[in-house]
Structure prediction request, 270 residues.
Amino acid sequence: MKSLKNHLSLIVALLSILFSLQTFIVVDRAIASYKQNLANNYSLVVVSKKRLQKDVIVSKNPLINEINEISPDTVLKKLDGDMKRKEREFLKLSLPKFYKLKLSHYPSPDEINSLTKALLRDSSIVKVETFSRTHDTTYKLLLLFKSVISLFAISVAIVTILLISKELKIWQFKHNERMSIMALHGAPIWLRSAVLFRLAIVDALVATFLGFLLFSYIASSAWIAEQFSYIGIDVVVFDTFKDSLMMFSVSMTLSIFLATIIVLVHKEEV
Prediction:
């Protein structure tokens, strides 16, 4: 029973790290998808004194994905509807040219400033409307949300690593007498510590398997898909191959690394 309890403690600790890491990955994917969704709906408005060459504007900055001219009729509709046809046509000719710029991804405030400066170097462009206040607020909220999740994941990882180290050390103390006898008979350190590494490897495999089952279930949940659909994004909650490989690599590397550290520290103490 005690052996099972020790195994369970280590498995739960490893599973906590895998859960935190996978949660961070899902949040990161959700933010990336949401930023792409924002990019599809976000655009800049450029006002020019004359017609612009689309190829020239697109080449000014790799952030620019597409440029479309806004019909002057759209602007005139907001004016007095009783305006005579000749006056409307004359006003249409005298109006500056309006263009809507679509971007390849949702930009940071620095990227927006750099793009604005690049556009204004064109003497024909008189104004660039970036809607900076709304943009900056949204971007800062995204960064804040990601920072909070990152801090949470790091905190859980630190506490869990300390717990794993403690559990492995307990196992080392339990087998200390056997390891000392083997040392007196000239057994190499890797053979003396085989039980510790076996524990680390077996529990890492079990934790990976449980993590796979847990996130496979979460990914198939209709409720999770519904929550993402509410905000108009599509997120891969669990990539069977890539995420499983990540879980296996993290749990195995962490377990063996901590077991190695404990063995080396014990060797120095002896």
